[in-house]
Amino acid sequence: ADGALPAATQWLAGQMIFSLREAADGAVWIGVRTGVWRAEGDAAPQAFALPVTAVVEAVEQDAQGRRWIATRSGLLLEHAPGLFAQFRREPGRPYTLPSNSLIDALRDREGGLWFPAFEGGLVHVKPQWPNFALLRPAVVEGRAVDEERVRTLSRCADGSLLANAARGGLLRLDPVDATDVRIDPPWPADAVPRQIMAVLCARDGAYWIAHRTGVSRFDPASRALRTWKGGASDGIAEGLVDLLYEDDDGKVWASVLGVAL
Questions:
Q1: Best label site of 14, 23, 58, 97, fewest CB within 10 Å?
Q2: What is the tens place of the pLDDT at every residue in 169-219?
Q3: DSSP count for the chain of H helices, then E strands
Q4: CA-CA distance, 163 to 209, in Å (whole number)?
């Protein structure tokens, strides 16, 4: 994705950015309030036609190269260029989509897909789809949904998935058997605000943490933690960081309130 995201930022000024995801061909898919844009090389991003107008929270590809688009109005699957299937919640019908509001998407090393649901829990699509399953992990069980809703997912170097909740809980998922373990944050508890918006497992082994006062990087090997709080001295915009993305060059991008990169 060399140049794709830097070139896109000038064209996306003023857009509410909800997701960034790199495709297998190196293009970057950008979810915005009214749909999704595709950025490639130095060219201006192009709007990608969807069958509905919806806030796009994430775009992910499965092992067959099909594109899954998580929105606040259901789930879209592009099974062929320009041809979509739309999935929405169907109360009373087993194995159907259990939530219409999905707030992230990630493919695991086994080829399964995971979608955090706004109402709580994680929607799981196994590689042998077509059934949907709802996992109610320990990070959600027994707590108010608005306190422990899973916000984002990140794929770690060991193949596990790291999920973070609105009030700071962390969950490590094993995609092989869909088991989960609640874990303590690996960084010093008092060094990062409890309200975490996103966590990224970077390819170099570091953790990036987006929170209400900025963004932090924790290196578990050296135990070093650095925090950027925004402003001219830190080189990032001031405000609540709500999105983290690592490009194919290892650069980490942070979105501030969805309107600045």
A1: 14
A2: 788 888 877 777 777 888 887 888 877 888 999 999 999 998 888 889 999
A3: 2, 22
A4: 12
Q: CA-CA distances (angstroms) from residue 204 to 51, 59, 91, 217?
A: 39, 24, 43, 11
- Residue 165, CA distances (Å) to 36, 234, 242 in order: 25, 26, 13
Which amino acid would we find at residue 56? Answer: V
Structure tokens at 48: 């990608």
Q: Which token pair is 160?
A: 């596990």
Using CB atoms within 10 Å of the CB of residue 202, give its burial: 0 to 12 exposed, 13 to 18 middle, 19+ buried.
middle
Looking at this protein, which amino acid is placed at residue 242?
Answer: D
- Counting every residue, how long is the chain? 261
Distance between CA 123 and CA 178 in Å, rounded?
11
* Burial of 49: CB neighbours in 10 Å, binned 0-12, 13-18, 19+: exposed
Comparing CA positions, the residue from 93, 21, 86, 82 lying closest to residue 243 is 21
* Residue type present at position 90: E
